[in-house]
């Protein structure tokens, strides 16, 4: 009978030393020197798949049996080995890190959620002892005011849903500043801000047209302005609290932008691109567990759909991508990846359209 190391485990540094991390069973097993040496032996090119008799000869019956019981080492006929083979049919092409995160953050049978009462008590305590980080800065000295937002055409929502399409061919025309202002206000601006008090502290709750996990409004929006009337080319951060943009970066030349977006040159004809990031401190404050990263990515998806719908209602074209080089955009927009995790880019502009009846919607 052959034995091999589990392909869904890895050695990590735990609080008390090295551990074997098993994301499928949500456990970390402390490793002593003997255990580490045994894992190294199995990981060796000649020992990664070994006859059990040879493993026993080298490591001893007790140690091999213990490794099997802990599912660090698997026999070819074990249920765990069969399960891993099935999972690898879907997950094998992705990295070990992707597999580890996904399975480690699943909620399994028997794992408990905090009750509503427990959550409320925890939040009451945190708001007093550890107030949430300020979500949006108030008026910044170098912030630029946007034009007064206009009205969105009264197209029924169901018609907007049915007509929305990803656009990758743009007319290369400038975008009106008022149109951009309307898009930002309706899609990513604040629809409501509530002032509340808890103990001797005041705090704010913010709301957008798109939902966000725990009402944390965790999606940060940056702009790469290329051809917007009244807005100099460059990088900006949008502040929905006062509907302004703050300069944070220089203009990106075509070659650099194409490189940042993985060679997707169709973005170069967009007068403006929105870059979405997950504000990590706002999520961690309420959800101090790794599963909340999923919430942040979902928040970006919700907000992105609001942008796509609003752009469609305004007669604009828009296309989303998650294929980009984070480090290039972080450098261009002054983003700290320890605080803000970039998650997507949306190009917006006038679609390639020769119908004169639709041209007025873009001005």
CA radius of gyration: 26 Å
Largest beta-sheet details = 7 strands, antiparallel
Distance between the termini: 73 Å
Number of strands: 15
Describe the protein.
The structure is a single chain. By secondary structure, the chain is of the alpha+beta class. The protein has 2 domains: 2-105; 139-349, 3-Layer(aba) Sandwich (NADH Oxidase), CATH 3.40.109.10. It contains 13 helices and 15 strands. The strands form 4 sheets. It has a 7-stranded antiparallel β-sheet with strand order 7-12-11-10-13-15-14. A 3-stranded antiparallel β-sheet has the order 5-1-6.
Briefly say what this structure is.
This protein is of the alpha+beta class and 363 residues long. Helix content is 36%, strand content 23%. It has 13 helices and 15 strands.
Task: Compile the SSE list and pairings.
Elements: E1 2-5, E2 10-14, E3 17-22, E4 27-30, H1 33-43, E5 49-51, H2 52-59, H3 61-69, E6 73-75, H4 79-91, H5 96-104, H6 116-129, E7 144-145, H7 157-163, H8 177-187, E8 192-198, E9 201-207, E10 219-225, E11 234-239, E12 244-249, H9 254-260, E13 272-279, H10 280-286, H11 292-313, E14 317-321, H12 326-333, E15 340-349, H13 356-359
Antiparallel strand pairs: 1-5, 1-6, 2-3, 3-4, 7-12, 8-9, 10-11, 10-13, 11-12, 13-15, 14-15
